[in-house]
Amino acid sequence: MRRTPRDSAESSRRMTRRGLLLGGAQIAFAGVLGLRMRHMQVDQAAEFRLMAEENRINIHLIPPSRGRIFDREGRLIAENEQTYRITMRREDAGDVEDVIGRLSALVDLRPEDVTRALEEMRTSPPFLQVTVADRVSWEAISRVAVNAPALPGVYPEVGLSRFYPQHETFAHVVGYVGPVSERDLARYEDPEPVLRIPRFQIGKVGVEAKFEEQLRGSAGAKRVEVNAVGRVMRELDRREGEAGADLQLTVDSELQDYIKARLGEESASAVVVDLEHGDVLAIASSPSYDPNKFVRGISVGDYGVLRENNHRPLASKTVQDAYPPGSTFKIVTALAALEAGLIRPDETVYCPGHMEIGSRRFHCWKRAGHGHVNLEQSLRDSCDVYYYDLALKVGIDRIAEMGRKLGLGTAPDVPMSAVTAGLMPDRDWKRRERGAEWRIGDTVNASIGQGYVLTSPLQQAIMVARVATGRSVEPRLVRSVGGLQTPSRGGTPLDIDEAHLKLIRKAMFVVSNSRRGTAYRSRIIAENMRLAGKTGTSQVLNRVVRNQDVPWEERDHALFVNFAPYDAPRIAVSIVVEHGGGGSSTAAPIARDITLQALYKGTPPLEAYPAGDRERIQAQQERLEAERAKRAAEAGRRA
Question: CA geometry: angle at 599 spanning 595 and 602, to 5°?
Fold first, then answer.
Protein backbone atom coordinates (compact mmCIF):
# COMPACT_ATOMS: atom_id res chain seq x y z
CA MET A 1 0.00 0.00 0.00
CA ARG A 2 1.31 3.39 -1.01
CA ARG A 3 2.15 5.68 1.98
CA THR A 4 0.77 9.18 2.04
CA PRO A 5 3.00 12.20 2.50
CA ARG A 6 1.52 12.69 5.93
CA ASP A 7 2.44 9.15 7.00
CA SER A 8 6.01 9.64 5.78
CA ALA A 9 6.42 12.90 7.69
CA GLU A 10 5.13 11.28 10.91
CA SER A 11 7.49 8.34 10.52
CA SER A 12 10.44 10.62 9.93
CA ARG A 13 9.63 12.60 13.06
CA ARG A 14 9.52 9.44 15.22
CA MET A 15 12.88 8.18 13.86
CA THR A 16 14.58 11.48 14.55
CA ARG A 17 13.41 11.42 18.19
CA ARG A 18 14.70 7.84 18.68
CA GLY A 19 18.00 8.79 17.10
CA LEU A 20 18.37 11.71 19.44
CA LEU A 21 17.61 9.56 22.47
CA LEU A 22 19.97 6.81 21.35
CA GLY A 23 22.68 9.28 20.44
CA GLY A 24 22.29 11.08 23.73
CA ALA A 25 22.60 7.78 25.61
CA GLN A 26 25.72 6.89 23.66
CA ILE A 27 27.27 10.26 24.30
CA ALA A 28 26.45 9.99 28.02
CA PHE A 29 27.97 6.50 28.18
CA ALA A 30 31.08 7.69 26.36
CA GLY A 31 31.32 10.58 28.80
CA VAL A 32 31.13 8.25 31.78
CA LEU A 33 33.84 6.06 30.24
CA GLY A 34 35.96 9.14 29.59
CA LEU A 35 35.57 10.35 33.15
CA ARG A 36 36.43 6.91 34.47
CA MET A 37 39.47 6.68 32.24
CA ARG A 38 40.57 10.13 33.36
CA HIS A 39 40.12 9.11 37.03
CA MET A 40 42.17 5.94 36.50
CA GLN A 41 44.87 7.54 34.32
CA VAL A 42 45.24 10.80 36.19
CA ASP A 43 43.82 10.60 39.70
CA GLN A 44 44.87 6.96 40.33
CA ALA A 45 48.00 6.97 38.20
CA ALA A 46 50.37 6.81 41.15
CA GLU A 47 48.49 3.89 42.72
CA PHE A 48 48.46 1.82 39.52
CA ARG A 49 52.08 2.68 38.84
CA LEU A 50 52.94 1.36 42.31
CA MET A 51 50.96 -1.84 41.70
CA ALA A 52 52.78 -2.36 38.42
CA GLU A 53 56.09 -1.70 40.10
CA GLU A 54 55.27 -4.27 42.79
CA ASN A 55 54.78 -6.88 40.09
CA ARG A 56 57.95 -5.87 38.28
CA ILE A 57 60.25 -4.76 41.13
CA ASN A 58 61.22 -6.62 44.29
CA ILE A 59 62.91 -5.27 47.40
CA HIS A 60 65.65 -7.47 48.90
CA LEU A 61 67.19 -6.87 52.34
CA ILE A 62 70.99 -6.82 52.43
CA PRO A 63 72.32 -8.29 55.69
CA PRO A 64 74.91 -6.01 57.30
CA SER A 65 78.54 -6.99 57.73
CA ARG A 66 79.07 -8.03 61.34
CA GLY A 67 81.66 -6.12 63.33
CA ARG A 68 85.00 -7.84 63.82
CA ILE A 69 86.66 -8.65 67.15
CA PHE A 70 90.37 -8.08 67.84
CA ASP A 71 92.72 -8.75 70.73
CA ARG A 72 94.64 -5.98 72.50
CA GLU A 73 97.42 -6.08 69.88
CA GLY A 74 95.04 -5.93 66.91
CA ARG A 75 95.08 -9.65 66.08
CA LEU A 76 91.81 -10.99 64.66
CA ILE A 77 89.71 -13.13 66.97
CA ALA A 78 86.43 -13.08 65.01
CA GLU A 79 86.05 -12.13 61.35
CA ASN A 80 83.67 -12.59 58.42
CA GLU A 81 84.52 -14.98 55.60
CA GLN A 82 82.98 -14.96 52.14
CA THR A 83 80.74 -17.94 51.45
CA TYR A 84 78.44 -19.08 48.63
CA ARG A 85 74.87 -20.04 49.33
CA ILE A 86 71.65 -20.81 47.47
CA THR A 87 68.46 -19.13 48.61
CA MET A 88 64.83 -19.32 47.54
CA ARG A 89 61.90 -16.91 47.75
CA ARG A 90 58.50 -18.62 48.02
CA GLU A 91 56.46 -15.90 46.33
CA ASP A 92 58.72 -16.04 43.24
CA ALA A 93 59.10 -19.81 43.07
CA GLY A 94 55.50 -20.88 42.51
CA ASP A 95 55.58 -24.65 42.99
CA VAL A 96 58.31 -24.76 45.64
CA GLU A 97 58.72 -28.55 45.74
CA ASP A 98 58.98 -28.77 41.96
CA VAL A 99 61.67 -26.07 41.89
CA ILE A 100 63.61 -27.78 44.68
CA GLY A 101 63.39 -31.03 42.74
CA ARG A 102 64.99 -29.36 39.71
CA LEU A 103 67.59 -27.72 41.95
CA SER A 104 68.48 -31.10 43.48
CA ALA A 105 69.36 -32.37 40.00
CA LEU A 106 72.04 -29.66 39.76
CA VAL A 107 73.33 -29.44 43.33
CA ASP A 108 73.77 -32.05 46.06
CA LEU A 109 71.26 -31.05 48.74
CA ARG A 110 71.22 -32.75 52.10
CA PRO A 111 67.75 -34.09 53.00
CA GLU A 112 67.85 -32.31 56.37
CA ASP A 113 68.61 -28.99 54.63
CA VAL A 114 65.67 -29.46 52.25
CA THR A 115 63.34 -30.32 55.14
CA ARG A 116 64.50 -27.29 57.12
CA ALA A 117 64.15 -24.95 54.12
CA LEU A 118 60.62 -26.15 53.36
CA GLU A 119 59.61 -25.63 56.99
CA GLU A 120 61.13 -22.14 57.06
CA MET A 121 59.35 -21.18 53.84
CA ARG A 122 56.08 -22.47 55.24
CA THR A 123 56.38 -20.38 58.43
CA SER A 124 58.08 -17.26 57.02
CA PRO A 125 56.55 -14.40 55.02
CA PRO A 126 56.54 -15.26 51.28
CA PHE A 127 58.84 -12.36 50.40
CA LEU A 128 61.71 -13.52 52.64
CA GLN A 129 64.57 -15.49 51.14
CA VAL A 130 65.31 -18.81 52.78
CA THR A 131 68.73 -20.45 52.65
CA VAL A 132 68.43 -23.85 50.97
CA ALA A 133 72.14 -24.69 50.90
CA ASP A 134 75.01 -22.88 52.63
CA ARG A 135 78.75 -22.99 52.03
CA VAL A 136 78.41 -24.51 48.57
CA SER A 137 81.20 -24.62 45.99
CA TRP A 138 81.78 -22.14 43.19
CA GLU A 139 80.97 -24.89 40.68
CA ALA A 140 77.55 -25.42 42.28
CA ILE A 141 76.83 -21.69 42.24
CA SER A 142 77.81 -21.55 38.55
CA ARG A 143 75.43 -24.40 37.62
CA VAL A 144 72.56 -22.63 39.38
CA ALA A 145 73.32 -19.31 37.67
CA VAL A 146 73.44 -20.89 34.20
CA ASN A 147 70.10 -22.64 34.77
CA ALA A 148 68.39 -19.62 36.37
CA PRO A 149 65.48 -19.48 33.82
CA ALA A 150 64.40 -22.96 34.87
CA LEU A 151 64.70 -22.15 38.59
CA PRO A 152 62.26 -19.33 39.40
CA GLY A 153 62.74 -17.86 42.84
CA VAL A 154 66.18 -19.45 43.28
CA TYR A 155 69.08 -17.07 43.88
CA PRO A 156 72.79 -17.93 43.99
CA GLU A 157 74.40 -15.50 46.43
CA VAL A 158 77.71 -14.47 47.88
CA GLY A 159 77.38 -13.87 51.61
CA LEU A 160 79.36 -13.44 54.79
CA SER A 161 79.59 -15.94 57.61
CA ARG A 162 81.35 -15.73 60.98
CA PHE A 163 84.74 -17.35 61.29
CA TYR A 164 86.99 -17.72 64.32
CA PRO A 165 90.59 -17.98 63.07
CA GLN A 166 91.98 -18.96 66.47
CA HIS A 167 89.45 -21.78 66.84
CA GLU A 168 89.47 -23.15 70.42
CA THR A 169 91.58 -20.38 71.98
CA PHE A 170 88.77 -17.88 72.65
CA ALA A 171 85.67 -20.08 72.52
CA HIS A 172 84.64 -19.38 76.12
CA VAL A 173 85.29 -15.64 75.87
CA VAL A 174 83.99 -14.60 72.46
CA GLY A 175 81.39 -17.35 72.15
CA TYR A 176 79.80 -17.92 68.73
CA VAL A 177 76.93 -16.89 66.46
CA GLY A 178 74.08 -18.98 65.09
CA PRO A 179 70.78 -18.66 63.18
CA VAL A 180 68.02 -16.58 64.76
CA SER A 181 65.54 -18.73 66.68
CA GLU A 182 62.04 -18.02 67.98
CA ARG A 183 63.56 -17.79 71.44
CA ASP A 184 65.92 -15.07 70.21
CA LEU A 185 63.06 -13.12 68.63
CA ALA A 186 61.07 -13.32 71.86
CA ARG A 187 63.72 -11.16 73.55
CA TYR A 188 62.75 -8.19 71.36
CA GLU A 189 59.52 -6.21 71.63
CA ASP A 190 59.72 -5.18 67.95
CA PRO A 191 62.39 -7.26 66.15
CA GLU A 192 64.20 -5.60 63.27
CA PRO A 193 63.18 -6.98 59.83
CA VAL A 194 66.69 -8.30 59.26
CA LEU A 195 66.26 -10.66 62.24
CA ARG A 196 63.42 -12.36 60.40
CA ILE A 197 65.65 -13.41 57.54
CA PRO A 198 65.91 -17.18 58.05
CA ARG A 199 69.41 -18.35 59.00
CA PHE A 200 70.51 -14.79 59.82
CA GLN A 201 73.33 -15.06 62.34
CA ILE A 202 73.29 -13.42 65.77
CA GLY A 203 75.40 -13.88 68.89
CA LYS A 204 74.41 -16.84 71.03
CA VAL A 205 76.89 -16.76 73.94
CA GLY A 206 79.86 -14.78 75.20
CA VAL A 207 80.92 -11.39 73.85
CA GLU A 208 79.09 -12.15 70.58
CA ALA A 209 75.79 -12.22 72.50
CA LYS A 210 76.48 -9.45 75.02
CA PHE A 211 77.45 -6.97 72.27
CA GLU A 212 74.97 -8.24 69.67
CA GLU A 213 73.39 -4.89 68.86
CA GLN A 214 76.73 -3.10 68.41
CA LEU A 215 78.22 -5.93 66.35
CA ARG A 216 75.14 -6.50 64.14
CA GLY A 217 74.95 -3.15 62.34
CA SER A 218 71.90 -2.19 60.25
CA ALA A 219 70.55 -3.82 57.10
CA GLY A 220 70.65 -2.32 53.60
CA ALA A 221 68.26 -2.92 50.69
CA LYS A 222 68.31 -3.33 46.92
CA ARG A 223 65.59 -2.98 44.27
CA VAL A 224 65.69 -5.54 41.48
CA GLU A 225 63.60 -5.88 38.32
CA VAL A 226 62.15 -9.33 37.66
CA ASN A 227 60.36 -10.88 34.69
CA ALA A 228 57.08 -12.80 34.65
CA VAL A 229 58.67 -15.98 36.03
CA GLY A 230 60.48 -14.19 38.81
CA ARG A 231 63.97 -14.19 37.33
CA VAL A 232 66.05 -11.16 38.29
CA MET A 233 66.70 -9.10 35.17
CA ARG A 234 68.69 -6.26 36.65
CA GLU A 235 69.45 -4.39 39.85
CA LEU A 236 67.87 -0.93 39.83
CA ASP A 237 69.49 0.58 42.89
CA ARG A 238 71.13 -0.40 46.15
CA ARG A 239 71.46 1.09 49.63
CA GLU A 240 74.28 -0.52 51.52
CA GLY A 241 73.75 -1.34 55.16
CA GLU A 242 75.84 -0.02 58.00
CA ALA A 243 78.50 -2.46 59.20
CA GLY A 244 78.57 -3.38 62.86
CA ALA A 245 81.07 -1.79 65.22
CA ASP A 246 84.44 -3.49 65.66
CA LEU A 247 85.40 -4.54 69.19
CA GLN A 248 88.87 -4.66 70.67
CA LEU A 249 89.23 -6.88 73.71
CA THR A 250 91.83 -6.53 76.46
CA VAL A 251 93.04 -10.11 76.07
CA ASP A 252 96.41 -11.02 74.57
CA SER A 253 96.15 -13.84 72.00
CA GLU A 254 99.73 -14.98 72.51
CA LEU A 255 99.32 -15.26 76.27
CA GLN A 256 95.92 -16.93 75.93
CA ASP A 257 97.35 -19.46 73.47
CA TYR A 258 100.27 -20.20 75.79
CA ILE A 259 97.92 -20.80 78.71
CA LYS A 260 95.86 -23.21 76.64
CA ALA A 261 99.02 -25.17 75.84
CA ARG A 262 100.26 -25.02 79.46
CA LEU A 263 96.99 -26.28 80.92
CA GLY A 264 97.11 -29.16 78.45
CA GLU A 265 94.52 -31.86 79.11
CA GLU A 266 93.73 -30.68 82.64
CA SER A 267 90.21 -29.61 83.55
CA ALA A 268 91.37 -26.19 84.63
CA SER A 269 91.09 -22.43 84.32
CA ALA A 270 93.42 -19.44 84.50
CA VAL A 271 92.91 -15.68 84.73
CA VAL A 272 95.52 -12.92 84.34
CA VAL A 273 94.56 -9.33 85.23
CA ASP A 274 96.52 -6.16 84.56
CA LEU A 275 96.59 -4.09 87.75
CA GLU A 276 96.74 -0.62 86.22
CA HIS A 277 93.44 -0.62 84.33
CA GLY A 278 91.89 -3.93 85.38
CA ASP A 279 92.42 -5.33 81.87
CA VAL A 280 91.82 -9.06 81.62
CA LEU A 281 94.98 -10.15 79.77
CA ALA A 282 93.96 -13.80 79.62
CA ILE A 283 90.92 -15.79 80.74
CA ALA A 284 91.12 -19.42 79.68
CA SER A 285 89.15 -22.59 80.38
CA SER A 286 90.47 -26.03 79.55
CA PRO A 287 89.57 -28.11 77.66
CA SER A 288 87.90 -25.99 74.99
CA TYR A 289 85.96 -26.48 71.73
CA ASP A 290 85.93 -25.08 68.19
CA PRO A 291 83.15 -22.45 67.92
CA ASN A 292 83.24 -22.71 64.11
CA LYS A 293 81.43 -26.02 64.42
CA PHE A 294 78.46 -24.25 66.01
CA VAL A 295 78.40 -21.55 63.33
CA ARG A 296 78.29 -24.14 60.55
CA GLY A 297 75.87 -26.40 62.38
CA ILE A 298 77.45 -28.90 64.77
CA SER A 299 76.62 -32.55 64.19
CA VAL A 300 74.84 -34.64 66.78
CA GLY A 301 77.95 -36.81 67.13
CA ASP A 302 80.31 -33.89 67.71
CA TYR A 303 77.97 -32.28 70.22
CA GLY A 304 77.57 -35.58 72.05
CA VAL A 305 81.35 -35.89 72.43
CA LEU A 306 81.52 -32.41 73.99
CA ARG A 307 78.55 -32.95 76.26
CA GLU A 308 79.67 -36.32 77.57
CA ASN A 309 83.28 -35.31 78.31
CA ASN A 310 83.70 -35.29 82.11
CA HIS A 311 86.18 -32.39 81.80
CA ARG A 312 83.24 -30.24 80.56
CA PRO A 313 84.74 -28.43 77.55
CA LEU A 314 81.53 -26.41 77.01
CA ALA A 315 81.71 -24.81 80.47
CA SER A 316 83.33 -21.40 80.88
CA LYS A 317 84.99 -22.37 84.15
CA THR A 318 86.61 -18.98 84.76
CA VAL A 319 83.27 -17.21 85.36
CA GLN A 320 80.59 -19.89 85.32
CA ASP A 321 81.95 -22.29 87.93
CA ALA A 322 82.34 -21.58 91.64
CA TYR A 323 84.66 -23.57 93.88
CA PRO A 324 85.48 -23.63 97.59
CA PRO A 325 88.56 -21.35 97.64
CA GLY A 326 90.40 -23.40 100.24
CA SER A 327 93.41 -21.78 101.88
CA THR A 328 93.52 -18.87 99.43
CA PHE A 329 90.60 -17.55 101.50
CA LYS A 330 92.82 -17.24 104.56
CA ILE A 331 93.86 -13.87 103.12
CA VAL A 332 90.28 -12.67 103.71
CA THR A 333 90.07 -14.05 107.25
CA ALA A 334 93.43 -12.55 108.23
CA LEU A 335 92.52 -9.10 106.86
CA ALA A 336 89.15 -9.21 108.68
CA ALA A 337 90.92 -9.92 111.97
CA LEU A 338 93.52 -7.18 111.39
CA GLU A 339 90.88 -4.59 110.46
CA ALA A 340 88.85 -5.50 113.56
CA GLY A 341 91.96 -4.99 115.73
CA LEU A 342 91.65 -8.50 117.17
CA ILE A 343 95.18 -9.72 116.45
CA ARG A 344 98.72 -8.37 116.33
CA PRO A 345 101.14 -9.51 113.60
CA ASP A 346 103.52 -11.00 116.16
CA GLU A 347 100.82 -12.67 118.24
CA THR A 348 101.05 -16.46 118.11
CA VAL A 349 98.59 -19.33 118.24
CA TYR A 350 99.62 -22.85 119.20
CA CYS A 351 98.77 -25.53 116.63
CA PRO A 352 98.87 -29.11 117.95
CA GLY A 353 97.35 -30.40 114.71
CA HIS A 354 93.70 -29.91 115.66
CA MET A 355 91.27 -27.77 117.63
CA GLU A 356 88.40 -28.97 119.81
CA ILE A 357 85.24 -26.89 119.32
CA GLY A 358 82.30 -28.20 121.28
CA SER A 359 82.09 -31.92 120.68
CA ARG A 360 83.84 -31.74 117.33
CA ARG A 361 87.52 -31.88 116.45
CA PHE A 362 88.71 -29.71 113.53
CA HIS A 363 92.00 -30.93 112.09
CA CYS A 364 94.89 -29.04 110.57
CA TRP A 365 96.20 -30.34 107.25
CA LYS A 366 99.43 -31.14 109.10
CA ARG A 367 98.34 -33.72 111.63
CA ALA A 368 101.53 -33.31 113.72
CA GLY A 369 100.78 -29.59 114.06
CA HIS A 370 102.80 -26.43 113.37
CA GLY A 371 103.54 -25.41 116.95
CA HIS A 372 103.45 -21.68 117.72
CA VAL A 373 102.73 -19.59 114.59
CA ASN A 374 102.16 -15.88 114.03
CA LEU A 375 100.28 -14.22 111.14
CA GLU A 376 103.11 -14.42 108.59
CA GLN A 377 103.96 -17.99 109.51
CA SER A 378 100.31 -19.03 109.38
CA LEU A 379 100.10 -17.99 105.71
CA ARG A 380 103.57 -19.33 104.92
CA ASP A 381 102.73 -22.76 106.35
CA SER A 382 98.98 -22.52 105.61
CA CYS A 383 98.18 -23.49 109.19
CA ASP A 384 94.47 -24.27 109.59
CA VAL A 385 94.33 -24.11 113.39
CA TYR A 386 95.53 -20.48 113.39
CA TYR A 387 92.44 -19.59 111.30
CA TYR A 388 90.10 -21.68 113.40
CA ASP A 389 91.21 -19.53 116.32
CA LEU A 390 90.70 -16.34 114.27
CA ALA A 391 87.21 -17.51 113.29
CA LEU A 392 86.17 -17.68 116.95
CA LYS A 393 87.45 -14.14 117.51
CA VAL A 394 86.25 -12.45 114.35
CA GLY A 395 82.93 -14.10 113.49
CA ILE A 396 81.37 -14.74 110.10
CA ASP A 397 79.83 -11.29 109.60
CA ARG A 398 83.20 -9.49 109.66
CA ILE A 399 84.73 -12.19 107.46
CA ALA A 400 81.88 -11.87 104.94
CA GLU A 401 82.18 -8.07 104.95
CA MET A 402 85.88 -8.29 104.12
CA GLY A 403 85.20 -10.90 101.43
CA ARG A 404 82.77 -8.52 99.72
CA LYS A 405 85.29 -5.66 99.88
CA LEU A 406 87.69 -7.90 98.00
CA GLY A 407 85.13 -8.72 95.29
CA LEU A 408 83.70 -12.02 96.52
CA GLY A 409 79.97 -12.76 96.57
CA THR A 410 79.25 -10.42 93.63
CA ALA A 411 79.10 -11.36 89.95
CA PRO A 412 81.99 -9.64 88.12
CA ASP A 413 80.84 -7.20 85.44
CA VAL A 414 82.22 -8.90 82.32
CA PRO A 415 80.38 -9.55 79.02
CA MET A 416 80.50 -13.33 79.24
CA SER A 417 77.70 -15.86 79.64
CA ALA A 418 76.43 -17.33 82.92
CA VAL A 419 78.70 -15.25 85.18
CA THR A 420 78.32 -16.54 88.74
CA ALA A 421 78.25 -14.45 91.90
CA GLY A 422 79.73 -17.29 93.91
CA LEU A 423 78.69 -17.28 97.56
CA MET A 424 79.90 -15.18 100.48
CA PRO A 425 77.62 -16.49 103.25
CA ASP A 426 76.70 -14.93 106.57
CA ARG A 427 74.07 -15.40 109.28
CA ASP A 428 71.28 -13.72 107.33
CA TRP A 429 72.02 -15.81 104.24
CA LYS A 430 71.70 -19.11 106.09
CA ARG A 431 68.54 -18.02 107.85
CA ARG A 432 67.03 -16.82 104.56
CA GLU A 433 68.18 -19.59 102.22
CA ARG A 434 68.48 -22.61 104.50
CA GLY A 435 65.91 -21.77 107.18
CA ALA A 436 68.49 -22.49 109.89
CA GLU A 437 70.67 -20.59 112.33
CA TRP A 438 74.37 -20.09 111.69
CA ARG A 439 76.64 -22.33 113.78
CA ILE A 440 80.15 -21.78 115.05
CA GLY A 441 81.28 -24.77 113.01
CA ASP A 442 80.10 -22.94 109.87
CA THR A 443 82.39 -20.03 110.74
CA VAL A 444 85.32 -22.36 111.38
CA ASN A 445 84.86 -24.03 108.00
CA ALA A 446 84.44 -20.67 106.23
CA SER A 447 87.65 -19.29 107.76
CA ILE A 448 89.72 -21.71 105.64
CA GLY A 449 87.59 -21.41 102.51
CA GLN A 450 85.44 -24.50 102.99
CA GLY A 451 81.82 -24.98 103.96
CA TYR A 452 79.43 -22.67 102.13
CA VAL A 453 82.01 -20.28 100.64
CA LEU A 454 82.24 -20.42 96.82
CA THR A 455 84.32 -18.30 94.44
CA SER A 456 85.04 -18.27 90.72
CA PRO A 457 88.58 -18.10 89.30
CA LEU A 458 87.89 -14.55 88.07
CA GLN A 459 86.75 -13.50 91.54
CA GLN A 460 89.95 -14.96 92.98
CA ALA A 461 91.98 -12.88 90.53
CA ILE A 462 90.02 -9.76 91.54
CA MET A 463 90.63 -10.55 95.22
CA VAL A 464 94.40 -10.75 94.85
CA ALA A 465 94.43 -7.70 92.54
CA ARG A 466 92.77 -5.64 95.28
CA VAL A 467 95.15 -6.92 97.91
CA ALA A 468 98.13 -6.08 95.69
CA THR A 469 96.98 -2.53 94.85
CA GLY A 470 94.74 -1.45 97.72
CA ARG A 471 92.24 -0.32 95.06
CA SER A 472 88.79 -1.59 94.05
CA VAL A 473 90.07 -3.08 90.77
CA GLU A 474 87.29 -4.30 88.45
CA PRO A 475 87.87 -6.53 85.41
CA ARG A 476 87.74 -4.86 81.99
CA LEU A 477 87.33 -7.24 79.05
CA VAL A 478 86.42 -4.81 76.23
CA ARG A 479 89.01 -2.15 75.48
CA SER A 480 87.15 -0.25 72.76
CA VAL A 481 83.86 -0.32 70.83
CA GLY A 482 83.86 1.17 67.35
CA GLY A 483 87.20 2.80 68.07
CA LEU A 484 85.98 4.50 71.26
CA GLN A 485 88.00 3.59 74.34
CA THR A 486 86.14 2.20 77.34
CA PRO A 487 86.91 3.68 80.79
CA SER A 488 89.74 2.31 82.91
CA ARG A 489 88.63 0.08 85.75
CA GLY A 490 91.70 0.44 87.95
CA GLY A 491 89.43 1.39 90.84
CA THR A 492 89.59 3.76 93.79
CA PRO A 493 91.30 3.20 97.17
CA LEU A 494 89.71 0.53 99.33
CA ASP A 495 88.60 1.21 102.87
CA ILE A 496 91.33 -1.08 104.22
CA ASP A 497 94.34 0.02 106.25
CA GLU A 498 97.40 0.05 103.97
CA ALA A 499 99.57 -1.23 106.84
CA HIS A 500 97.39 -4.33 107.07
CA LEU A 501 97.57 -4.90 103.32
CA LYS A 502 101.37 -4.68 103.49
CA LEU A 503 101.42 -7.39 106.16
CA ILE A 504 99.40 -9.71 103.91
CA ARG A 505 101.55 -8.95 100.84
CA LYS A 506 104.71 -9.65 102.83
CA ALA A 507 103.27 -12.95 104.07
CA MET A 508 102.34 -13.93 100.48
CA PHE A 509 105.92 -13.14 99.43
CA VAL A 510 107.19 -15.47 102.13
CA VAL A 511 104.82 -18.23 100.90
CA SER A 512 106.70 -18.24 97.58
CA ASN A 513 110.21 -17.25 98.62
CA SER A 514 110.86 -18.78 102.04
CA ARG A 515 112.27 -22.31 102.10
CA ARG A 516 109.42 -23.28 104.40
CA GLY A 517 106.77 -21.67 102.21
CA THR A 518 104.18 -23.94 100.60
CA ALA A 519 104.98 -22.52 97.13
CA TYR A 520 108.79 -22.27 97.46
CA ARG A 521 109.38 -24.86 94.73
CA SER A 522 107.47 -22.63 92.29
CA ARG A 523 109.35 -19.41 93.02
CA ILE A 524 110.81 -16.93 90.51
CA ILE A 525 114.43 -15.95 91.12
CA ALA A 526 114.74 -13.05 88.65
CA GLU A 527 115.24 -10.07 90.96
CA ASN A 528 112.62 -7.75 89.48
CA MET A 529 110.05 -10.46 88.77
CA ARG A 530 109.54 -12.22 92.12
CA LEU A 531 105.97 -13.23 92.85
CA ALA A 532 103.88 -13.28 96.02
CA GLY A 533 101.20 -15.92 96.22
CA LYS A 534 99.01 -18.25 98.23
CA THR A 535 98.30 -21.93 97.70
CA GLY A 536 94.92 -23.53 98.21
CA THR A 537 93.48 -27.04 98.28
CA SER A 538 89.71 -27.42 98.51
CA GLN A 539 87.89 -30.61 99.38
CA VAL A 540 85.35 -32.05 96.97
CA LEU A 541 84.02 -34.65 99.42
CA ASN A 542 82.91 -33.90 102.94
CA ARG A 543 85.76 -36.03 104.30
CA VAL A 544 89.53 -36.12 104.14
CA VAL A 545 90.85 -38.36 101.35
CA ARG A 546 94.18 -39.40 99.90
CA ASN A 547 93.92 -38.19 96.32
CA GLN A 548 95.84 -41.12 94.92
CA ASP A 549 93.35 -43.52 96.51
CA VAL A 550 90.12 -42.14 95.02
CA PRO A 551 88.78 -41.66 91.47
CA TRP A 552 89.68 -38.44 89.63
CA GLU A 553 86.28 -36.81 90.18
CA GLU A 554 86.58 -37.24 93.98
CA ARG A 555 90.01 -35.65 94.33
CA ASP A 556 90.63 -32.20 95.81
CA HIS A 557 90.77 -29.07 93.68
CA ALA A 558 94.15 -27.32 93.42
CA LEU A 559 94.26 -23.49 93.58
CA PHE A 560 96.87 -20.76 93.50
CA VAL A 561 96.66 -16.97 93.44
CA ASN A 562 99.51 -14.50 93.11
CA PHE A 563 100.61 -11.05 92.06
CA ALA A 564 103.92 -9.96 90.54
CA PRO A 565 106.39 -8.37 90.63
CA TYR A 566 106.29 -8.10 94.40
CA ASP A 567 108.02 -4.70 94.59
CA ALA A 568 105.92 -3.08 91.83
CA PRO A 569 102.83 -5.22 91.13
CA ARG A 570 101.70 -5.31 87.49
CA ILE A 571 99.56 -8.45 87.21
CA ALA A 572 97.40 -10.75 89.29
CA VAL A 573 96.98 -14.45 88.46
CA SER A 574 94.45 -17.06 89.53
CA ILE A 575 94.64 -20.80 88.76
CA VAL A 576 92.17 -23.60 89.51
CA VAL A 577 92.88 -27.20 88.50
CA GLU A 578 89.83 -29.33 89.05
CA HIS A 579 90.61 -32.48 91.04
CA GLY A 580 94.28 -31.58 90.70
CA GLY A 581 95.23 -32.51 94.25
CA GLY A 582 97.47 -30.03 96.08
CA GLY A 583 97.70 -26.36 95.26
CA SER A 584 101.44 -26.30 95.91
CA SER A 585 102.22 -29.30 93.71
CA THR A 586 99.78 -28.76 90.82
CA ALA A 587 98.48 -25.20 90.59
CA ALA A 588 101.52 -23.21 91.76
CA PRO A 589 103.92 -24.41 89.00
CA ILE A 590 101.36 -23.52 86.32
CA ALA A 591 100.81 -20.09 87.87
CA ARG A 592 104.57 -19.42 88.01
CA ASP A 593 104.99 -20.26 84.30
CA ILE A 594 101.99 -18.13 83.26
CA THR A 595 103.19 -15.23 85.41
CA LEU A 596 106.61 -15.23 83.74
CA GLN A 597 105.07 -15.53 80.29
CA ALA A 598 102.90 -12.49 81.00
CA LEU A 599 105.68 -10.40 82.54
CA TYR A 600 108.17 -11.08 79.74
CA LYS A 601 105.47 -10.91 77.04
CA GLY A 602 106.81 -14.13 75.59
CA THR A 603 109.03 -17.05 76.50
CA PRO A 604 110.99 -16.05 79.63
CA PRO A 605 114.75 -16.62 79.98
CA LEU A 606 115.77 -19.77 81.83
CA GLU A 607 117.65 -17.55 84.29
CA ALA A 608 114.30 -16.52 85.77
CA TYR A 609 113.87 -20.08 87.09
CA PRO A 610 115.79 -21.80 89.91
CA ALA A 611 118.90 -23.57 88.57
CA GLY A 612 117.56 -27.02 89.47
CA ASP A 613 114.44 -26.49 87.32
CA ARG A 614 116.05 -25.15 84.17
CA GLU A 615 116.65 -28.39 82.30
CA ARG A 616 113.04 -29.47 82.88
CA ILE A 617 111.70 -26.02 82.03
CA GLN A 618 113.70 -25.88 78.79
CA ALA A 619 112.25 -29.22 77.69
CA GLN A 620 108.79 -27.99 78.65
CA GLN A 621 109.21 -24.75 76.68
CA GLU A 622 110.30 -26.65 73.59
CA ARG A 623 107.39 -29.05 73.90
CA LEU A 624 104.84 -26.27 74.35
CA GLU A 625 106.28 -24.30 71.45
CA ALA A 626 106.03 -27.36 69.21
CA GLU A 627 102.43 -27.96 70.32
CA ARG A 628 101.48 -24.35 69.62
CA ALA A 629 103.11 -24.44 66.18
CA LYS A 630 101.31 -27.68 65.36
CA ARG A 631 97.99 -26.25 66.50
CA ALA A 632 98.54 -23.09 64.44
CA ALA A 633 99.27 -25.21 61.36
CA GLU A 634 96.12 -27.27 61.92
CA ALA A 635 94.09 -24.08 62.34
CA GLY A 636 95.45 -22.82 59.03
CA ARG A 637 94.39 -26.02 57.28
CA ARG A 638 90.91 -25.90 58.83
CA ALA A 639 90.49 -22.30 57.71
Answer: 95
